């Protein structure tokens, strides 16, 4: 039933493939540039203070990069499963695939990768993003996905996070994302103030702002954990398997850096 374009007749256009998040790439590039720049000027610092400043600057930049990166990361809640599932609407064809779900503060990312990738005369490799950040309409993005004729597993998972879904995941994770993101932005502001104060003869206040940075990170985690536990888990059945989610790298690295603050 596949056409020469390797897509079903009801699928409009080519499959959109999303690369690595550009925002995260920019954040990483900026902080790596700052580290490299400091290493270049490091020989100008004399004696034992050289190692002290190296550890201090690298640690501080790492904390700042983490706060910004996790704010835009889609790996706060993650899950992955290998399954045999239906492929597209109006077709009885099934495929063997790995299905991944990543829930971030601003939306969800759903991946579908065939095992093998080439099946049904198609390259089955999807990476779709649906957002609910301020100014974005999740329901409209889901409607557009329906119009494009995306695969069943992608649409099934995306539908679970729509505002009208009986699972209630949209309000649950959207609320968690907004409050957690707000706490992380306050933590980033505290981090900036801490660096300014530590570069001036007000080390005590700089230490207090570092402590505040860790506190607001932990408050963000508290909001996220509380909001995401307000409703019972929603079963995610994909063909012959069930997808289970758990806290992802963004959650744990935020917890680690928040606990590490003095």
Summarize this, please?
50% of the residues lie in helices and 19% in strands.
Per the principal axes of the C-alpha atoms, what is the gross shape?
elongated
Strand order of the biggest β-sheet: 4-3-2-1-7
Mean pLDDT: 83
Q: Which series of helices and strands comes N to C?
A: HHEEEEHHHHEEEH
Tally of strands = 7
Which ranges are low-confidence, i.e. pLDDT below 50, for 5 or more consecutive residues? Answer: 1-20
End-to-end CA span: 62 Å
- Largest sheet descriptor: 5 strands, antiparallel
**Could you estimate the helical fraction of the residues in percent?**
40-55%
- Beta-strand residue fraction: 15-25%
Number of helices: 7
Give the C-alpha Rg.
22 Å
Report the structural category.
alpha+beta
Set down the secondary structure blueprint.
Layout: H1 22-41, H2 49-72, E1 77-86, E2 94-103, E3 107-119, E4 122-131, H3 138-148, H4 152-160, H5 169-198, H6 203-227, E5 236-238, E6 241-243, E7 246-247, H7 249-260
Antiparallel strand pairs: 1-2, 1-7, 2-3, 3-4, 5-6
Helix pairs in contact: 1-2, 2-5, 2-7, 5-6, 6-7
Describe the structure.
By secondary structure, the chain is α+β, with helices and mostly antiparallel strands. The chain is 50% helix and 19% strand. A 5-stranded antiparallel β-sheet has the order 4-3-2-1-7. It has a two-stranded antiparallel sheet with strand order 5-6. Mean pLDDT is 83; it is low at 1-20.
